[in-house]
Design a protein that fits this description.
The chain has a single domain, classed as Methane Monooxygenase Hydroxylase, Chain G, domain 1, CATH 1.20.58.110. It has three helices and no strands. The longest helix is centred in the first third of the chain and has 33 residues.
Amino acid sequence: MANTKSALKNIRKSNKLQEHNRHVRSTLKTLAKKVNAAEGDEASKAAAAYISALDKAAKRGIIHANKASRHKSALASKVAKA
């Protein structure tokens, strides 16, 4: 267990950040499912929301920038086929 006040604070802080990051990753998964399930005009709106969320998560360091690019590229090719 932590011995100092600052170590205790760091534990609290990291737990809070971990919870927030988990929430963002879960939201990304939900948005991806919505994109896959959507059709037509709904799909383009869902894709825009997903791309925006990916960019925000990558900017904040929650996911790696290359992962965001990979998902956006796959989404673009999926939309082009449809």
